[in-house]
Automatic annotation (TrEMBL):
Protein name: HTH luxR-type domain-containing protein
Stretches assigned to the HTH luxR-type domain: 480-537
TM region(s), chain numbering: 361-380
Domain of life the protein comes from: Bacteria
Biological process terms in GO annotation: regulation of DNA-templated transcription
Signal peptide: 1-28
InterPro entries xrefs: Sig_transdc_resp-reg_C-effctor (IPR016032), TPR-like_helical_dom_sf (IPR011990), TPR_rpt (IPR019734), Tscrpt_reg_LuxR_C (IPR000792), WH-like_DNA-bd_sf (IPR036388)
Keywords tagged on the record: Membrane, Signal, Transmembrane, Transmembrane helix
GO function terms (MF aspect): DNA binding
Length: 541
């Protein structure tokens, strides 16, 4: 009948879990559902620990497949709790190390705090004080850094300080335990500390009182808190009844003391929790039986102690051979990872050096090429400039020679015009002084036509002068707008380097008039005495 009842309860649990796994409520997200499934699997441990472990392993694989590292770590932590309560510390440690590696890889510092703290507590079980405090301090410092960054409330320090309190209580350092418990009360906040409720702190205070001879104050506190723990955390009853038994034994109430110890063992068996703690309870019973002169029961309790001690704590135990020679897998993995990072860094630096070397070579070649190109371009441009300058000089020289030739032609033309005009003047003078058979009127007409032809010849000369000395008159008009047409004509004749006599003949004025005209021209041009008028005209245009 009992067997069928147990099977029925197991099936009911399985159906409940399947319902939770498949349920998708409108207001529940997939994220929260994952944590609900984890909680349901862990709760199954109280009656069916093997089923709980199997379900948690399945959830771990599922979360890893979906790359949900946080939930995968939580599954590992729950597995570590299950194995720890069953006193299988080897498996518990393995899951904690695996969780720590995942948390470190995912940089989940809030989870690393929990893992460091739990590893420290396991070391405390074996009285390895320095190791235990080392991990607890690591967890506490990491927690403080998260609080400083605003990623965690200061009330979270309550759990950290409580770990120190329980550790120092187990080590028999009650003054330090009380100091840390005071810190727990200082940082405790009801609205924040949901995983650590006030009854935990009050119960821990009662435990310290029992150990320090204040059992009378502790007993009513413990008994008042028993219903709350039975409802909220049944596994904790194993510890509570053990301490309550200590309190009654210290007060000489052996009947209640024995009953409390037996209750502690019963809760351990029924909840499959704190199996290792049963060793201490049997040891306490053996001492009490010895005090009562019940040596047979004392002997039986000691045999139970010896058997359980070999199982859970002896180095020959299959559970503890790997545990007592703990290999710091996390440190080894971190060292291997650090070594790999160093090797990768070295490879990266070597690659960067090669790239830098090739880059320097390319830059050097390009720089050298640019410099060489610049030098060649400079010499090419200088040579080109020299050639162009030489060509310009030759062109200017040719233009100057051509200009001189044209000016000589103009001067020759002007002289011919001057001689022609002089001839006509002489002819006119002779005809006027003689009376010949030719009609005087006809000769005068002939001379007049020759003289008027001079005007046309002068216009032709002026046009040819402008063609040769392009811009000469334009520059005179621009720079010296007050010059008269006669003065501009004088400037042109001076530019041709004609003498005053030649100029006088061409302009039909006397030589003195030419000198006066040159003087007036110098004044209009504002020329100093040192400046030669002919050279000045030659430099125009």
């Amino acid at each position: 009948m009992k067997k069928s009842t147990g099977q029925m309860r197991f099936f009911l649990w399985t159906i409940c879990l399947l319902f939770v796994f498949s349920a998708r409520t409108a207001d529940a997200s997939e994220d929260s559902l994952g944590y609900i499934r984890l909680a349901a699997a862990s709760k199954l441990r109280l009656e069916y620990p093997d089923s709980s472990i199997s379900l948690l392993n399945g959830l771990y694989e599922e979360f890893m497949a979906s790359q949900d590292t946080a939930k995968a770590i939580q599954a590992l932590l729950n597995l570590a709790t299950d194995y720890g309560n069953m006193a299988n510390y080897r498996a518990s440690y393995n899951h904690l190390w695996k969780a720590l590696l995942l948390a470190d890889e995912g940089r989940l510092d809030n989870l690393k705090v929990q893992i460091y703290r739990r590893i420290g507590r396991y070391y405390a079980f074996y009285k390895r004080r320095e190791k235990a405090l080392g991990f607890l301090n690591t967890a506490l410092e990491l927690q403080k850094s998260l609080i400083a960054k605003g990623q965690m409330d200061s009330a979270a320090l309550t759990r950290g300080y409580l770990s120190f309190c329980t550790t120092f209580t187990e080590l028999g350092e009650y003054e330090l335990a009380q100091n840390y418990l005071d810190s727990c009360f200082l940082y405790y906040k009801t609205e924040v500390n949901r995983s650590i409720r006030l009854p935990f702190l009050q119960m821990q205070q009662a435990f310290i009182q029992v150990e320090t001879g204040q059992e009378k104050q502790a007993i009513p506190v413990i008994e008042s808190l028993l219903p709350w723990f039975e409802q909220q955390l049944p596994t904790y009853q194993v510890l509570i009844y053990s301490f309550l038994g200590d309190a009654y034994r210290a007060g000489g109430n052996y009947a209640k003391s024995e009953w409390c110890y037996q209750e502690s063992l019963r809760w351990s068996r029924s909840t499959h929790s704190h199996l290792d703690f049963s060793v201490l309870v049997h040891e306490k019973l053996a001492r009490q039986y010895a005090d009562q002169r019940n040596f047979r029961q004392a002997y039986l309790s000691l045999r139970t102690v010896d058997s359980l001690d070999k199982r859970f704590f002896d180095s020959r135990s299959a559970y503890n051979i790997p545990l007592l020679e703990i290999q710091d897998e996390f440190r080894n993995a971190m060292e291997a990872q650090e070594q790999l990072l160093k090797e990768n860094r070295i490879a990266q630096l070597e690659h960067e050096n090669r790239v830098r070397f090739l880059r320097n070579i390319i830059i050097s070649v390009l720089s050298g090429s640019l410099i060489l190109f610049g030098i060649l371009f400079f010499y090419y441009m200088r040579h080109k400039h020299r050639v162009e300058k030489r060509v310009i000089q030759l062109e200017r020289k040719a233009d100057k020679e051509l200009l001189n030739m044209k000016n000589r032609e103009l001067a020759t033309s002007a002289l011919k015009l001057f001689e022609k005009d002089k001839f006509l003047q002489d002819l006119k003078a002779r005809v006027a002084g003689k009376k010949e058979t030719i009609s005087l009127q006809e000769i005068k007409q002939l001379v007049r036509r020759g003289t008027s032809g001079n005007t046309n010849a002068w216009k032709a000369f002026e046009a040819q002068f402008v063609a040769v000395n392009n811009g000469f008159y334009q520059e005179l008009r621009t720079n010296y707008p007050d010059l008269t047409p006669g003065e501009r004509k004088l400037c042109a004749l001076i530019k041709l380097k004609l003498t005053s006599k030649e100029i006088a003949g061409l302009m039909h004025i006397s030589v003195d008039s030419v000198h006066k005209s040159r003087y007036r021209l110098r004044k209009k041009l504002s020329l100093d005495k040192e400046i030669d008028l002919t050279d000045f005209m030659s430099n125009i245009n």
